[in-house]
Every structure is written in C-alpha cells, then in structure tokens.
Amino acid sequence: MFTSIMSVLLLFSPTIAPTTTTTANPDAAAIDRVVEEYRKEAGVPGAAVAVTRGTTVVRVAGYGRTPDGTAVSERTTMAVASVSKSFTALAVVQLAEAGRLRLDDPVRDHLPEFAPADPRAGRITVRHLLDQTSGLSDATSTVPRVDTLREAVAALRDATLASDPGAKWQYHNPNFQVAARLVEVVSGETFADYLRRHVFEPLRMSDSSTADTERDLPPSARGHLKVLGGAVPLPEPPAFGNGSGGVLSSARDMASWLVAQNTGTSIATPEGIAAAHTRSAGSYGLGWFVGTTGSGARLIDHGGDLFTSTAYQALLPDSGYGIAVMANTGTQYGDAQALGDRLVALVEGRPFEPVSDPFLVVDVVLLALAAGVVALAVRGVVRARRHARRPWWRLLPLLLPVLLASTIHLVVGFLYRGRDVSWQQAAYLYPTFTVLLLVTAVACAVVLVVGVAHRARRPAAP
C-alpha cells in the first residue's frame, strides 16, 4: 500500500535541472564544487570523497559534519557498508594466491562448520560465495541476531538453497560472512586482524578497521535520516555486518585502496586483482559489479547501504580513475551512489543527472494525512455514543491498521526479496509512513475502545 502511495507521489516530486557543463580531467576545485553543490541540493550533512588517477591522488577531502557536529575531514572514519565485500574477496584471493585454498574448492573442505540443511550445500565452492551464486538467498535463509562470524555461519544450519550452486546469481550478505569466517579458519587469525596485517597495513590505511555489529561503530560512522528536508541524527539499528558490510575507512585510506585496485600492488598479483574485476555471474565479479559508464567505458563498482549512511566505489580502468564516496544519510536516499555517479560523469566530461528530492513531497503528504487521521479520530470518539446501537462487527475494520502496524516489518521484508527485517529497520526505511501508520493504528484503537465501552454501558434490550 505505502509503496503505491510513494510511487504516485514521485510523479510530482521536484527535480533540479541537470548541470550542462562538466570538465574532463578535473582538478580538486572542480571536484569540490560538484560535491558541495550536491550536498546543498540533496541535503547531505556530511560526506567524504576520494578521487585518484593511476598512482596519483587527485582529491581526498571531507565535507560537512558528522552527527555529533564534528567536521568531516579526509581522516574521518566512516562506514563503507557493502563496499566491504571487495575487501573480503581480496582477502580470499590472497589466500588462494598463497596456496592455502583454491577458489573452486568446496567451502566445507576448509570450513566444516558450514553445514546448511540443504544437501546441495556441500557443492558450494569458495567462488560461489564471492560471486553470489551459492544458491543461498534472503528468501530461504534467515539469520537471527548474531555477534560473531562463527555465530553467523552456525545460524545457517537450517538454511535451504533457492537454486543449485552456480546456477543463479542472488545477492545475499551471508555469502560474504561465510567467506570472512573462511578467512579466519584458513589463516588462523581473526578477520579483523587479517585485514589489518594483510590489507590495511601494507596500504598504510591507518584509519581503517572492521566492525562486527552496530555497537562497534564510532560516532563519526553514524548517520542520519532525512525528514521534511532536514537531517535527523539517529543510531544505526541493530545488525551484524562483518565480512559483508563491516569495514570502516576514511577518504585518505580509500584513496590508497583505489590506487591499489587500479594499478596492482604487493597485496595481490595483477592477475588476482583482475580476477576479482572480471564478470563471473551476470554483472558480478568477486565482490564487485562489472558494467559500463554512461559513456560506454568499463566500470567496476559497488555500493553500500546502512540504514543511516551509504558508500560507493568505482574504478574506470580505461582512464585509470578511481572514485570513493561515503555519505552520512541512509539507504533510502542513495546519496553516496548518486554523488559517485556525478563524479564519474565529471571525469568523463558528461552532463550530470538532475538531483531530485521526492521524499520532501512524500513526507509532507504523509504527515498531513497523519494530522487528518487525528482529526477523524477525535470526531469518531465524539460520535461514539451516537453509534453505540450499530452492530458490533462494524468496529472490526478498525483492527486492520493495528494489524498492519504490528506486522509492517514482515511486509517490508517481503518487498526486500524475503530479507529478515526488524520493525525498527522498517521504521528507518519509511519514517514518515511509519508515523502515519502508528498514528492511524493508535487512533483506530482509541475509537474501538471507546466504541466498545459505550456498547458495554448501553442498557440491555428488554
């Protein structure tokens, strides 16, 4: 229901005309202008950006502020969310190049604790995890709240497969949690220590680390929801993300990462990096998407979404550019991806896509509807005595908003390909709709209770 309302409202949302002048081979000033213009138009409180070309760092900078009011700098640690998958894939590729495993080995050969209920799980290879073709899916494996990679793997013991391993691409975060646990078991180090010793330290990424849950996020890595065009700082909802979305980094560190990916360094052979960037299943490589830019050039990228922040990284092998963006606004706005797309257009000399803000219109309409519901509820309470003689079953429709409010997380989970979504997460995804739904549910409950009370006090018929 709410998706239909939002789809209609999007038709009437304001957009800002696309910029018609861009500059190929941009300098730092040109990048700053693009970032600041986007932040102003889209209402992004804070962002961090890295742009590289070959081994040259064109620009690393922070813009705006964190939720606690601290200025974002090139050293500010922010969440990169699912961009983390490329780090996990690199760690596995490193182990393969060291001869500790092979990408086409069955996962169970190295990780016996990986034992989903489906007998086909024995055929899942390491490569299947990294290119998202394991057969595990959001619709067939529900992972409860866990705190460690070991627990995340153990939680899959009741999982079934939606398809045979290798047969179908399905984006599924636990694939990379299993891969991260595989790194721990094969290397004998915790995943955090492995990344620190074999990725972060060699690349001098001293601001970078990896987190298990939202409790491990520093204040600078928390973000905002946008309501009525204003940014509201909120803590990240409870979730586990190590391996699939737990890396924390800065603009300066991401510049080192981009240079390594575009040029090849001691962290992996050029062949190993190329394998991760090569299309393996559909448009996916190993922890990277593989496609083309608006001008038709090769594009290797990946986005990342938390509920209060987003991230994006892009490699343009033909020109040697690398771009990384972290924004402290949540997944429904896609600001890091949108800003990253603008920066890709900038380095290619293409016009930018317009900035749109559909959520301002949506928020105004939904909150206005909530105010209307309150007015109707007051009217219903006032008139409850008058309607006390009506049949009791006419009150039953008032239970529907209450039922929807209590199960909205299940509805949202279904819309998100069967993912296990908590009620709090659903509220973060659709904040003003949640306000409308709660107001409606409470209003209907009040009218129902008052109506039942009047019927209870009404004298029995002679």
Topology:
Blueprint: H1 2-10, E1 15-16, H2 28-42, E2 46-53, E3 56-64, E4 78-79, H3 84-97, H4 107-110, H5 126-130, H6 149-154, H7 173-187, H8 191-200, E5 209-210, E6 223-227, E7 230-234, E8 247-249, H9 251-263, H10 270-276, E9 289-292, E10 298-305, E11 310-316, E12 321-327, H11 335-348, E13 355-356, H12 358-382, H13 399-415, H14 423-429, H15 431-457
Antiparallel strand pairs: 1-13, 2-3, 2-12, 4-8, 5-8, 6-7, 9-10, 10-11, 11-12
Helix pairs in contact: 2-11, 3-7, 12-15, 13-14, 13-15, 14-15
Question: What does the model show?
Answer:
With 462 residues, the protein is α+β, with helices and mostly antiparallel strands. The protein has 15 helices and 13 strands. It has helices spanning 2-10, 28-42, 84-97, 107-110, 126-130, 149-154, 173-187, 191-200, 251-263, 270-276, 335-348, 358-382, 399-415, 423-429, 431-457; strands spanning 15-16, 46-53, 56-64, 78-79, 209-210, 223-227, 230-234, 247-249, 289-292, 298-305, 310-316, 321-327, 355-356. Helix 12 runs parallel beside helix 15 and helix 13 packs antiparallel against helix 15. It is globular. Residues 1-22 have low confidence and may be disordered.
Question: What are its keywords?
Answer:
15 helices; 462 residues; Beta-lactamase; 13 strands; disordered N terminus; alpha+beta; 6-stranded antiparallel sheet; 41% helix; 3-stranded antiparallel sheet; single chain; 14% strand; 2 domains
